[in-house]
Amino acid sequence: MTRMLAGGLFVLLLTATATPAAADELTGSGGVGVRGGTLFFTQDKTITANSQPRISGDLVLSYAWTDHLTADITVGWAWNRLETHDPRFYVVTVVPLFPLGLRYKMRDGSAIRPYLGAGGGLYNWSILSQDLGAAKDPVTFERLRRVDLGAYGIVGAERQMSKHITMVLDGNYTHIFADDKDRFPSGYSGAKSYFQFRVGVSFWFSLSERIDTGLPD
Predict the structure, then answer these.
(1) What is the largest CA-CA distance in the chain?
(2) What are 50-99's pLDDT values in tens digits?
(3) What structural domains and CATH numbers belong to the chain?
(4) Partner of 187 for a Cys bridge, out of 46, 74, 116, 177, CB 3.0 to 4.6 A?
(5) What is the pTM of this model?
(6) Residue burial 135-161, b: 16+ Cβ < 10 Å; e: rest
(7) Cβ–Cβ contacts within 10 Å for residue 43, how many?
(8) How many CA atoms lie within 13 A of 152 on its CB side?
């Protein structure tokens, strides 16, 4: 996974030196993108003490409002292995359920455009047993699976490869408001937070450009 992220950075740097910067032609366009990467949990002490990072994948739907401002809606899936040596608690997963965010791109005319952004929405988190069913708290027998509100901040860089293709490399910090010691007194009851690192590509299409059919208006 580290090699994939390093490879994405290398491609961005290579293309930036190999071709001149082009004017941004994405304003008013919609985009469909894919992202791959990994994440590292930083909160919920039971998870952070036992988690081993694995892969993540996202589908990102975007709209370029202006040359600087882009809106994103994301759905994805990520997981970490839990080294608890207990088959009842084997995997932790996170599924972003279409959180909405905004990115602000800087450095007009540059080959690589850094960006900052933030957003939030709903996230589904789960603790799974070795048979990949939802684990249960041993005291309350509540399933360790909830949908909670979350928020994120993001920083990254975007390279426009052509009129319809961009590459991105970014990192985000996500906080899920999942505190619930009443339902889960045995553990996994804290807020869930993580760093995620991704590399990906987006394909853009015009939402305002008329198609010339050759027919009269």
Answers:
(1) 72
(2) 999 999 999 999 999 999 999 999 999 999 999 999 999 999 999 999 99
(3) 2-20+36-204 (2.40.160.20)
(4) 46
(5) 0.84
(6) bbbeeeebebebeeebbbebebbbbbb
(7) 15
(8) 30
